[in-house]
């Protein structure tokens, strides 16, 4: 009878001196990661279990203790980032820009500015990559270090030009989560449309044109709209006779309502459609001694340029040449250096709308000059 033989199991290779088995290392690393994640989750639960009154008091003290201006204001944002309950407490304490005159959250960029004093910002232009950076002024100086708000890059789409606006200066694409909206011009660069990435009010329909779509497909996810929402137009009047003078422009915008509560706006619920706001450029005056057209920018603009403008509200929407209040400038934009421009806006405009209108002033407009 043949003998039954058994093959001994292969011996595991022993690690050399000073080495640690890979299996043991992986198990130990996973255990440490799970413990760290459990500790973080436990800390978050402890903060979330605080009484709402105590949360609100903490946020109030953080805002009162040097949180009026950036960069100290980032502590208020940090409180809102703890969890949903802390976010609700921060929203209840922090007031919108129309009331406080301060920009706190990213949603503040699409809220109306203050009524009395304008929000002072400036734009830096990079000609090499056709990128524009919007900063919030931190001091009373014309230009300072600033707090970065948004960026835009100019793209050529066939006969049209588009400015993609984003919260992230390194990710300027319509598929980005930081995408805010865009500005699109016609062939002549005299008519522009402003698009928002989110619906301006409940029930708003995205633009059906192919050029206004964000993605090639109809839907990426239920939370991300595949289209853009048109919220305004900017037009420059033709100057066929080549008469001397600055550019003439007017804007028709769908401005956010100042009657909505701050909480509802952040939750993007219960928003109602608002009427159009029509703006036109303030007429400059001819200075005989200087032999040029002049506007009073109150020291915020120091370099003469055809790009400089001031916008005021028009009385009759059907007649953009009419003026409701010639003295109250809702948006002013002007040059202070070769690649630096100031941008001051106030209610009913938001920072996003003011930035889009200002971007339309860049570039040569042969039919208007």
TrEMBL record:
<dbReference type="InterPro" id="IPR000007">
    <property type="entry name" value="Tubby_C"/>
</dbReference>
<feature type="compositionally biased region" description="Acidic residues">
    <location>
        <begin position="22"/>
        <end position="40"/>
    </location>
</feature>
<feature type="region of interest" description="Disordered">
    <location>
        <begin position="1"/>
        <end position="40"/>
    </location>
</feature>
<comment type="similarity">
    <text>Belongs to the TUB family.</text>
</comment>
<feature type="domain" description="Tubby C-terminal">
    <location>
        <begin position="109"/>
        <end position="364"/>
    </location>
</feature>
<dbReference type="InterPro" id="IPR018066">
    <property type="entry name" value="Tubby_C_CS"/>
</dbReference>
<protein>
    <recommendedName>
        <fullName>Tubby-like F-box protein</fullName>
    </recommendedName>
</protein>
<dbReference type="InterPro" id="IPR025659">
    <property type="entry name" value="Tubby-like_C"/>
</dbReference>
<dbReference type="Pfam" id="PF01167">
    <property type="entry name" value="Tub"/>
</dbReference>
